[in-house]
Amino acid sequence: MSAVAEPMVAVRGLTRTYGSAPTTVHALSEVSFDIAPGELVAVVGRSGSGKTTLLNLLGGLDRPDAGTVRVAGTEVTALDEQGLSRLRRDTISYVFQTFGLIPALTAAENIGVPLRLRRTPTHERESRVALLLDLVGLRDHALQRPAELSGGQQQRVGIARALAGSPRLLLADEPTGQLDAETGLAVMALLRAVVESEGVTAVVATHDTVTMSLADRVLRIADGRVDG
Amino acid sequence: MLTLVVRRALVQRRLLTAVVVLIAVAASLVGICSLLLGVTADRAFHAEIERSQPEDVDVTAYVVGVAGSDAVDAREQARSVVRDVLAPMQPTVTSTATARMRRLGDSDRLAYLETGDDLAQRADLTSGRWPDDAAAGAGEALVPDTAARLLDLSLGTRVTFGTEIGLDGVDNRVVVVVVGTYRPHDRAGWETDPLGGDGFDPAYSDGTVTAPAYGPFLVGDAAFLASGSSVTGLRVVAHPTLTLAEDSSLRDAVDSLDHASGLLSARVDDRARITRVASDLSRTLDRVHAQQASTRAAVLVVLLLGTALSLAAALLAGWLVAGVRDDERALLVSLGLSRRQQVGVALLESLLLAVTAALLAVPTAAVVHSRLTHLPDLEAAGLTQSPSVTWGLVVPVLAGAVLLALALVVTALDTGTMRTPVGRRRAIARSGLDLALLGVAGVAFWQLRSQPATTATPGDVTLTVAPVLCLAAVTVVAVRLVPLLLAASARVAARSRALVLPLAAQQAARRSHAGTAMVLVAAAVAASVFGLALRTTWERSQDDQAALRVGTDLTLTLPAPAGPREAAAVLAATGDISHGPVVSAVIDRPLALGRYVGEAGARPVLVAVDTRHAGALLRGRLDPGTTWAEVAADLDPGSPVDGLVLPDAGTGLELQGVLEDEAPAGVALTVQPTVVVQDAAGLRSAVAAEPLPMDGRSHPVELLEPLGSGLRLVGVRLDLDGGSGVGPGVSAPEVSVTLRVPGAEADSGSSWEVRSLGRDTPVRGARVSLDRTDAGTEVRTTARLDLTYLAYTGAVILTTAFAAPAEVPVVVSQELADVVGAQVGEEISAIVGSAALALRVTAVVPTVPSAPGQVAVLADADTLTRALIGGGRLEPVVDAWWVADPTPQTADALRALGIGDVTTRQDVAEELAQGPLRVTVPSALSTLVVAAVLLLLAGVGLVLSADRQRRSAEVARLRALGLSRRDARRLLFVEHSAFLVPLVLLGALVGLVAAVLLGPLLIRSDLGAAPVPDAVVAWPWAAEGLLVGGLLLGSLAITAIVTAFHVRRSDPAHLRAGDD
């Protein structure tokens, strides 16, 4: 009997509603799916279809009305505030639509933020940051601050930061939403490449067809339900 | 447009409410200061004027030498002139007329009449009743107690006045009947009396006649005029109704005074020898105006500093609002909103906010101002006011609110403010601005330092603007250090492997657009620290000025030099010498130093006190490490003068004059002894006796004034006369004069000195011996007397129980040292009265007690009187008494004596610090402290709120990256603290430096001149520590609260619709 690999993400009966009757919005209704380790999954759907809600629930940023989410064997929905912080620090990382870099820090310092959160020794942190800068092609921009970088470069820094802590699950919400098509493609290609090289599981919310083409699997979300 | 403004305001009501409250607080400060400068200043002016002493505001006309027939008209003319000067203030006019001295009956003794309509205020009835002017028969008169006793007058006694003395004296006889006796109510009011209110002078002299004089005999107006007496002095005093005194009416009165003397002279014409109108009103008004200017400057400093802080806070609020509306503005601009429309919207909103804030600020300012005037000091000064809304409040509050609200317009249009980093060009411009600001601060400081020491109106502007410029400029430049400091801290913190500390330091160091916030926080702290230190420095200076102005704790200043009676009364009032407070008779009078006599109103002054008690007695700040006891140690007169104990009242004194050799035929010599006595306190005075024949027999000494008890004989002056008819060639016979003091026992070893006084004296070989007898002690003075010269010059021999010092050691003021060029060890020749003295400088002090800033010398009273008596000056010299550490009962007892003005250091200090025109200063400075603290806390709130608005998403993202809630709070708290704490400390440092450099320069005396002694910084360390500590804790508390709120509102769950 062959051992079945445990999914990286296991979602069961996930339900999330906003507001109260009669204007209740069912963002997610009884959603269930699994995501295997190392898989790059694209979550697609129209605006307001529930993509961001799903990612927030996966990352423990929001709590469901019903259902469970398990990430790397940990039931996210059962964690307390401290547990969630630890989960986000050690297991999950984010790539934000608007890059989310800290303006006061340089590119290298921004990448080093998750490592500092883990109190990684300095030399280890610096070598990891250097590696990631190489990985995203920004070695020459290490000391520049976000305001001095282009949108694509900022998002590459964002991806490097997301990978800095060696997460097991990377959540990206419209990572190319603020970028032009060409830059967006380059960023997604980079994301695809680093996910593979780092062995990270990635969930990318998008409505970009190029992104969908780079994904291992596409989860379509409509009217609060997931298909795929 | 209005719809947009209103709807947006409804949506952003919390933010705008905070802005309105901020503007209302600032506008309230403007309103409070306006009220302090307006109604309170007016009230203070009236209160100060109403507290004025009569001599400060009265207008007095003097008419000297009027014939009895012209007296009525001259008096009416004088009344008319002085009444006209003070006409708007409905003056009360009183007059006093003093008649020329007349012979008392046919005797050589003199007496005089006086009438006046203010007698009841000047004299206390001690027996009988006031004269009835309508009574039939002889005029009724009130007699001084002293004169009644010496003349043996009782109620009902008829007194006949004979011929007037002097040229053209009236020759009629006047009879009055005594109906009562009186005692002068106070020496004040009797300055122009020929006998100074004493009632008796044993040797009154008008230049033509010297004789005992008595009076004045107070009679009614009709009796006085009926006497036909010549009027030697007519004094008409107009006292204004002070409640009607306005600044304008007082200025008009001062202007009128310039012409009043001329007018009176023209009206009286040649019917009087001298006419003059005098008043201290001009000086009083100048003093009041100087105090007003000084106080106004202090309040304006508060107003300007408060407004500057408020403006910074308003700008900060404006940028906060602009930041919140950035997206909305970008949208509206993209939809075609023109710049003019933007201005219109911003203006409309600003005006609405200003009006709203003003509606809150007007009643707030009125109430707070009213409460301020109910503070104990202001209440005591009579400045209490109920809340009231006047245009004088509404207009400045509205103007202040509009000005501050306009900051919202400026920030609304400054599109680069919130987002653009500081460019190189802007940095260069800012550096240039910094340099310019430092230049401005330097010029302002130089202006303050260069203020004239005397009263100067331009100083008002300097006092107001310079400190604000200095404080603002230095703060603006100094806060530039904070980012550098934080950057250095961030570099150090970056070595940490954790996130919180390095990120907090980095965020604090690279905080964008923090200039206004930094200036606001640092300036508010600096203003509060400066305000607190300036207040205590100001109060300390008032104490120092009072100490030096009074010179001791209590002074009793006499209108004329004191005699034994006053001395006895003071001794009785101050209690036991050995156990009571330290009391010193004081000689305080002008003197000439060589050829230097000073300027009008600034004569050199001699102050002589009992320097054995200098340490306890003298007040006034000396150089650090020096005490008055040390300074005065070289002035110590040495061993006390013992003399001979006199029997009570001097009874039993006998004198025997003997011409030892055979006298030429027909020669009769007389001797008039004057005894110099010393009381228990060491005060020396002289009492003359009737002349006695030198006939070889003992005669009782008949003193012209009664002696008290407990006195010692310390000197005898013998005025020898006679020798007429002696031809040339007669030899100089030896004479001896023996004064027998019953019961006295000379101390063994006591030696007396003898000298003859005067140039070309006929006295040869004078010597003195003390012989003890069974009955007492004899002071025997022997000399050869050249009778040929005696007939022309007379002879004076002085014997004393002490050696007259060849020179009087003195401590001199720095002013004197500068003017005369005197140095320690040098000798200065001085003239005190008519006595020439040699003074030897033993020390130089900044200033002599009671003579602040004057050319003055401090001497020992004992040494000085020895020198004066040794030079033959026996007239009274004591001008005052000084008392150290008096009890309230002592002060009351001395006041009750009514012999002079009692002034206490505490009273003067209170007057300087808490007078109506002065008390506003500390209150205004306290208001500055409170306002600065409020604005600081509001500023901190705004700084943190602005940051929260800007960085909410950032914190949420950090939370999403795994930053725990606790670490997020730590991060923000450390970051904000790292930003605020250095600013608070820097502000405190700026405030302390400003207090050191500017504080003393801002303090002026009540006369508007530089204070004497110079003001020195007084640190209320405990209060300052509490203030800075409180500000730090307050700032950190607000930081903790806002941080907690920030983190709660930045939950990663709020990262929706992307990540914002």
Walk me through this protein's architecture:
The complex is a heterodimer of chains A (228) and B (1060). In chain A, helix 3 packs across helix 4 (122-135), helix 3 (107-117) runs parallel beside helix 5 and helix 4 (122-135) crosses helix 5. With 228 residues, chain A is of the alpha/beta class. The two termini of chain A are 27 Å apart. Chain A has a single domain, classed as Rossmann fold. Chain A has helices at 51-58, 81-90, 107-117, 122-135, 151-164, 181-198, 209-214, and strands at 9-18, 25-35, 40-44, 66-71, 74-75, 92-95, 169-173, 201-206, 217-222, 225-227. In chain A, 36% of the residues lie in helices and 25% in strands. By secondary structure, chain B is an alpha+beta fold. Chain B has 30 helices and 34 strands. In chain B, the strands form 4 sheets. In chain B, strands 15-30-31-29-32-16-14-33-13-34 form a 10-stranded mixed β-sheet. In chain B, strands 17, 19, 20, 21, 23, 25 and 28 form a 7-stranded antiparallel β-sheet that branches. In chain B, strands 3-4-10-6-8-7 form a 6-stranded mixed β-barrel. In chain B, a hairpin with a 5-residue loop joins strand 3 (102-104) and strand 4. The longest helix of chain B has 44 residues, at 281-324. The two termini of chain B are 30 Å apart.
